[in-house]
């Protein structure tokens, strides 16, 4: 199979690029290949060589832009919010529905290759402080911020109160903590019904008297 040629500024001898943009075709091929291999073989089996072979690019093309497989997968994950702005910031006029939609979309992403990538990165991050910081800043924080924004909007509209046993930050921890626990333990599904259950539980947790609307 013919390898994708290096883009402008990507010398064939593997020397560092000279400030020109990398080939978008090669970049997309590498990201897609990493996700496919993660789905097919699992996170632990993923290697830069395997990614390069699957993407039909030179190994140095991958190393030039992504020193590790973790870097490749982080770029895959950080692209997701940009592809799904509507799902990341739902505004139906009902705070419970907005929470359920945001969590439902997030939970759907954890299935298959994305789920394997997320769990693998989280496991590696326990022994890698730099990776942990990047995972927090680039992947976890944006969805936490989106959920907190929805809850703040619910408070402003009078749908939620803040006189219950939990703060907004703890409510966000609760929502995503359940997701992480299930992802890492694998004892129960991370799915739409779970998103609905969490959304329904947030009202009492925050002290809301409003009944959840169907």
Number of strands: 0
Q: Give the averaged pLDDT, no decimals.
A: 86
C-alpha Rg (nearest Å): 20 Å
**Which fold name fills CATH's third level, the topology of the largest domain?**
Tetracycline Repressor, domain 2
Number of domains: 2
Structural class: mainly alpha
**Biggest sheet, in brief?**
none
Shape call: elongated
**CATH class descriptor name of the largest domain:** Mainly Alpha
CATH architecture of the largest domain: Orthogonal Bundle
**Approximate strand percentage:** under 5%
End-to-end C-alpha gap: 54 Å
Please give the share of residues in helix.
55-70%
Q: Going by CATH, what is the homologous superfamily of the largest domain?
A: Tetracycline Repressor, domain 2
Give start-end ranges of low-pLDDT stretches. Answer: 1-20
How many helices? The count is: 10
Order of helices and strands: HHHHHHHHHH
Description:
With 214 residues, the protein is mainly α. The chain has helices spanning 24-41, 48-55, 59-65, 69-83, 85-88, 95-109, 112-125, 129-156, 168-185, 192-206. Helix 1 (24-41) crosses helix 2, helix 4 packs across helix 7 and helix 4 (69-83) packs parallel to helix 8. The longest helix has 28 residues, at 129-156. The chain is elongated and about 55 Å long.
């Amino acid at each position: 199979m013919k390898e994708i040629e290096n883009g402008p500024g990507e010398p064939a001898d593997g020397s560092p690029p000279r400030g020109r943009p990398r080939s978008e075709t090669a970049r997309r091929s590498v990201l897609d290949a990493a996700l496919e291999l993660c789905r097919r073989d699992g996170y632990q089996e993923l290697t830069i060589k395997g990614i390069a072979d699957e993407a039909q690019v030179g190994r140095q093309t991958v190393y030039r832009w992504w020193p590790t497989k973790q870097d490749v997968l982080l770029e895959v994950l950080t692209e997701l919010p940009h592809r799904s702005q509507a799902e990341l910031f739902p505004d139906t006029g009902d705070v419970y529905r907005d929470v359920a939609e945001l969590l439902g979309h997030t939970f759907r992403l954890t299935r298959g290759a994305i789920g394997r990538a997320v769990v693998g990165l989280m496991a590696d991050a326990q022994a890698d402080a730099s990776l942990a910081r990047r995972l927090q800043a680039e992947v976890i924080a944006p969805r936490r911020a989106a959920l907190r924004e929805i809850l703040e909007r619910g408070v402003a509209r009078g749908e939620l109160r803040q006189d219950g046993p939990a703060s907004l930050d703890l409510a966000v921890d609760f929502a995503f903590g359940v997701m992480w626990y299930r992802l890492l333990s694998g004892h129960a599904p991370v799915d739409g019904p779970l998103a609905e259950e969490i959304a329904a539980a947030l009202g009492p947790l925050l002290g809301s008297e409003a009944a959840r609307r169907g």
